[in-house]
Amino acid sequence: MRDHQAAENRGIGTRANLTRQHAGSSNPLAKPGTWHNHTRATGRRFTPDCRRRFSPRLSRYTQHDYVQRVKDFATFLGRSPRTAEAEDVRRFQLHLTAKRAGTPTINATVSALRFFFTVTLNRADLAKPLSSIHEPRKMPVVLSPEEVARFLEAAPGIKYKAALSIAYGAGLRVSEVVALKVSDIDSQRMMLRVEQGKGRKDRQAMLSPVLLNLLRDWYRIGRPQGWLFPGRDPVNPMSTRQLTRACHAAAHMAEITKRVSPHTLRHSFATHLLEQGIDVRVIQVLLGHAKLETTALYTCVATKTLRAVTSPLDRLTPLVAKKDPPQAVPQVVPQVVPPA
Fold it and tell me: Which one is predicted more confidently, 207 or 128?
């Protein structure tokens, strides 16, 4: 029974983490033992609901994040969330704004609390004051082909070069790269199998001959078993944080001043395909996008495609016939008659 409770509470947070968060809480009057017990009780009740409702479509990282947001609310409140009122929800939203929480954090908190109030507590009235913030879509950062070549050559080792090459050469997300297994490489059909990607969907990704040769080089050196890119403990795959650190190190060694992350390679993959004239709907399938408008965003940064467009001004024909320039009138010079 104790092991079962520990498994349910995994992701709720350790006692040390809760203590650090409570130290910065805006409710200093809460009793230490009381707020900690309420937080644990909230997590025990919310976690099964979250897993039962969200497991088919959200990753375990997202589920953990939702539980964390509800835990933050319980810590801020200092008492059981069962006794929360609409004013408490409003104060918590003001608290997030005051500490300059980012738009993704606020929206994730709103989604988690809305589910918590509606499903777990059956108090839909508390979900009404919650409102999301519109986040303006930003232009993605894209590397040029020359920058990508320098970046990959600066990778710290063949293992990271192969992993980052997959992110660029196949357009995979960082979580999909680290989750690859050796059996996911189909050299006969030249495809990569992506299992349970974003949205818990399987799909096929392209495998180029250059990438296949690089993966074979990595296999001869590393001899991975199971996971294509094992972590420090071969039982587990490489973590996304580990690959992100290697990405930052490669960008620094290549002297790239742009802000580079593994997702930048995915952006560059889509943009470079678009500049090659590949149909945007094909790129949508390769990226695993559910909506075409998400893929269409890359048309804004495909500079070669934009430069190849002819302006309609250049195709205009003169509508008014050109007039001949006026001829100059010859000047008559008076003749001077000399005196007799």
Answer: 207
The Cα-based distances of 230 to 221, 227, 240, 261, 272 in angstroms read: 13, 5, 12, 20, 30
Q: Annotated catalytic residue: which of 173, 203, 267, 272? A: 173
Answer yes or no: 272 catalytic. Answer: no
Q: Give the side-chain half-sphere CA count within 13 A for 148.
A: 21
Position with higher pLDDT, 20 vs 326: 326
**CA torsion angle for 251, 254, 255, 259 (degrees, to 10)?**
-20
- Please name each of the domains of the chain with its CATH number: 2-127 (no CATH), 145-307 (1.10.443.10)
What pLDDT does residue 16 have?
40
Residue 54 clears pLDDT 90, i.e. is over it:
no
Active site residue: 198, 203, 267, 272, which one? Answer: 198
Q: Locate all alpha helices (DSSP H) within the chain, ordered by sequence.
A: 2-9, 15-23, 32-54, 60-77, 86-98, 103-115, 145-153, 158-169, 174-178, 209-222, 240-253, 262-275, 280-287, 292-296, 303-308
Token pair belonging to 255: 């002297």
Q: What is the pLDDT of residues 206-254, one digit of tens each?
A: 999 999 999 999 999 999 999 999 999 999 999 999 999 999 999 999 9
Task: Single out the catalytic residue among 45, 79, 181, 263.
Answer: 263
Cα–Cα distance, 157 to 153 (Å, whole number): 9
Contact 274, 298 (CB under 8 A): yes
Q: Which amino acid is at 218?
A: W
Quick check: 256 and 151 in contact, CB under 8 A? Answer: yes
| pLDDT surpasses 50 at 197 | yes
| Catalytic entry in 69, 71, 266, 267 | 266
